[in-house]
Amino acid sequence: MIAVETFPSIDQASSALTGDAIYLGGGTLVMRALNYGEQNFTRIVRSTDPTLKQIAASGDRITIGAGVTMAEVMASPELSFLAPVARNVGGPAVRNMASVGGNLFAEHPYGDFTVALLALKGSVTLNGGGEQEMESFLSSRSGFTEVVTSVSLVRPSERDFFWKKVSRVKPKGISVMSIAAWLPQSGGRISGARISFGAMGATPLRAKSAEAALEGQGLDQSSVAAACAAVRGDFQPPDDALASGWYRSEVAPVHLRRMLLGEGGR
User: 91 pLDDT exceeds 80?
Assistant: First the structure.
């Protein structure tokens, strides 16, 4: 028998996460485990705290409550730059459940939305008040006992943010890989390049060699070619039922080039 406990505040819910309890955000991950009999929990803890649904802009950054769903991201004018990313997360039923906070814990090859957050200099806020940069959080996410309350990220200009999902069944297929890039420019030169890939490791990862190849350059055929050559050394992708690691390594430069140069649509 699984007990479901609902609390009005996120702090109360966090305090209830004892023993074999599990926290339910949007529910796509927990309910899948429950439906397939893979659960190792007897209690489900959830919260109706309204702060989990807040979207707030401040300066050049925007904060999204962990309980905001992909459908709500798509409906928010302030998050229009993320609408194409959210639209690629499953079908309508999944998008009505899947939350921003839950996506942070989606294992390979899922977690497409987190790929965009990583590129956009994302950070994670926990209910205890602590804040972690996205890379640090992803490297140790399995060890967290606090609840994620929100994420914060850069609000890019439309011309500076790029997104591409590669799947065998569009638009809701599982990712062969996903790619996001934030390439802010000053005086026609890229400054602070960030490129991230999903399904190329256990968590979303940055392509730091490709970033370095673009830094200080204009976004053109030559600089993109250098980034595509460099990206081959950034990852050691795993094999899975969708694609081999070798295949992912071979096609990563192709899809990076297509995304950055707008080949076949941006």
Answer: yes
